[in-house]
Amino acid sequence: MDFEQWRPFPRRGSRARVLRRVLAGTAVAGAVLGGVLSLLPAGADRPPAPAPGPVARAANAVGTGVPVALPELAALIGQREARVRARPRDGVSWAVLGAAYVEQARRTAAPSYYPKAEDALLTSLKAGGKARLPALEGLAALANARGDFRTAKKWGGTAAAEAPKRWAAYPQLIEAYEGLGDYKAAGKAVDRLLDLRPGPAAMARAAGFYRDRGRREDAAAALSDAAAGARTRAERAAYLTRAGDLAWERGEPAEALRRYTAALGTDPDEHGALAGQGRTLTALSRTSEGLSAYRTALTKQPSPQYALELGELYEALGLPGAARVQYDLLRDRVRRESAAGVDDELVLGAFEADHGDARSAVRRLRAEWRRQPGIAVADALGWALHRAGDDAEAVKFAARATDAEHGGGVRSAQYAYHRGEIERALGLDGPARRHLAEALRVNPYFSPLHVPRARKALAALGDPPAEGLPEDGRSAGSRR
């Protein structure tokens, strides 16, 4: 539904329309007229309340994790900054301002907003009263945005315990549980969110959980419903971008590109769709356009992850100098974000494993695994151990990242490729062949740098034996 078609209140009821037609056709005395009017519900002849303005829309959205248009977000920040200067004890305004700072940092990759958000939200929490719950929810959102999932779980759990029928804490709890590898708790939080607040935002958040559990069709259906039901252009664009991400992971670059293009047509400030265009255009052999899209995305949202992707694309194109520029940008962005309290150890560890010091990557990622043992960290640590020469330990983490029983249900071409290469190094030809083939089947475009290596490794393994026991030594009737 487009925002212009949405109204926050229903139009006047049928009862009022019927009474007006009766009154229009009668010549009853004024006393009778007054008696009839007394039957009308209060306010029935008033016009519908106007739709909320940009600031009100942004204030409603940031408190619940719904995407916000950047101009509306900037207007909200300016308005709430002025209000807290005039009323420094207004705890609710401090909470809204803090949540707006978190969203601004997330959308623009401007880490300087994170300390400002923390100050605003702690000020709100100190004020107490009506400000307490939005402050707790905002602190959970801040922790998630910084990649600190334990802290997010603490703040979100406190908010949910104090107001279990209030839904706004549950999206933050889902993200925190997933980051900590607690997928059972994440599933319960998804169910609770859908019970409390069925609608586009809840469906979009549930889609992420379905994707991580390997339920791609459920994820795609939820995102489609969320985009169709979105009430603002910014919200719809965000859900279209996530649908594009899902199509990309399925190895469908043309479909993903269609979604990303629709997202940018809906909201030109949806910068994640620009990076998505970079991936998909490159996969479709439109390399110059892909490079341009990546560069634009980095200009508008200088994310370390985007810098890594663009650097690897340059490296795959035989442009090591251009790749080094992006890798230097990555290091610089990580330094800035770390100073603002952001945990970038995962992306930095992944970078170091392939392009820097693998042993340093192992140290970083071991520490990250102790803090928050999610499947993304398991995959990255396993790969770093492989790059550092410790394949015996590496395969344990690679198996965990791809083992549905322990949370690794997501169908990731990258995870399968990493596991296959580790198994190949260990001489486990059968499992290596299976996982390398799976990577190329899931998404034959998953990395411009690693796809050619996966194909070469698979060719080197050759065809499986025509007869005898399965190559991994298990009985023919066993299942993986």
Helix/strand order: HHHHHHHHHHHHHHHHHHHHHHHHH
- Could you name the CATH homologous superfamily of the domain at 363-464? Tetratricopeptide repeat domain
Rg over C-alpha atoms, rounded to the nearest angstrom? 26 Å
| Second CATH tier, the architecture of the domain at 363-464 | Alpha Horseshoe
SSE layout and pairing:
Elements: H1 14-24, H2 30-37, H3 54-62, H4 70-86, H5 91-108, H6 113-127, H7 132-145, H8 149-162, H9 170-179, H10 183-196, H11 200-212, H12 216-229, H13 233-249, H14 253-266, H15 271-283, H16 287-300, H17 304-316, H18 320-339, H19 345-355, H20 358-371, H21 375-387, H22 391-402, H23 413-425, H24 429-442, H25 451-461
Question: How would you characterize the overall build of this protein?
Answer:
By secondary structure, the chain is an all-alpha fold. Among the domains are: 3-37, no CATH class; 363-464, Serine Threonine Protein Phosphatase 5, Tetratricopeptide repeat (Alpha Horseshoe). The protein has helices at residues 14-24, 30-37, 54-62, 70-86, 91-108, 113-127, 132-145, 149-162, 170-179, 183-196, 200-212, 216-229, 233-249, 253-266, 271-283, 287-300, 304-316, 320-339, 345-355, 358-371, 375-387, 391-402, 413-425, 429-442, 451-461. Helix 7 packs parallel to helix 9 (170-179), helix 19 packs antiparallel against helix 20 and helix 23 runs antiparallel to helix 24 (429-442).
